[in-house]
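Please supply some protein, with fold tokens.
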Amino acid sequence: MPDISLTALVLLCLAALAAGWIDAVVGGGGLLLLPALLLGLPQAPAAYVLGTNKAVAIAGTTGAAVTYARKAPVDVRTAVRIGLTALAGSMGGAFFAAGISSELLRPVTMVVLLGVAAFVILRPSFGTGEGGRPVTRARALAAIVLVGGGIGFYDGLFGPGTGTFLVLALTAVLHLDLVTASATAKIVNVCTNAGALAMFAHQGTVLWQLAALMAVFNLTGGMLGARTALRKGSEFVRGVLLVVVFSLVAKLAFDQWA
């Protein structure tokens, strides 16, 4: 484990808990977890921060996926197909991530967050109605190739916001409500995390002891978040999505220009 103070370690564990809850509800837990790791490990190279982030995040994502699969109407077969494509994409993204500088992470994340915020504001009823429309073969193929491959590559390269982008893309392409989209996204996200983590592990850029400790908190948060989303419904999920996006845009902007 790197040289880190007890206070910083406690804060990282609490960030992992909150990130697990947020990621299970609307995705985007990495938008909290990754900045926390950047602050907690200021001397660590970007590849180690990204690799440790994946090792933590896969625990909460898996816990949320299992919780959702037991109670939500998830098409597991389609989700796994998207996930396998996303896994390949994430491994490709992780391969290129070794050359990414830490200074690039905050501004890039802020830009993609602003895009999410604009989309959600312009479409206030997005994902709050009833899902369940039949999924055509064309839409399923689009989800597998574009959603799986494209977002999977992004997840391996940068990572933050992947869950949120998956929820939005799956809602749009497959006509799912936000709760079912969140459930499907968690299964896909397990695959993307696994692919990226495998690449980071191969490159030796994972701080395993720190990741194992934080993963316990992330797993707890992920399971609690999935139960909350199932109980509260799509309107609640959309509200949390807006709060998360605007809070993190504000934080990243402050970190960038303060």
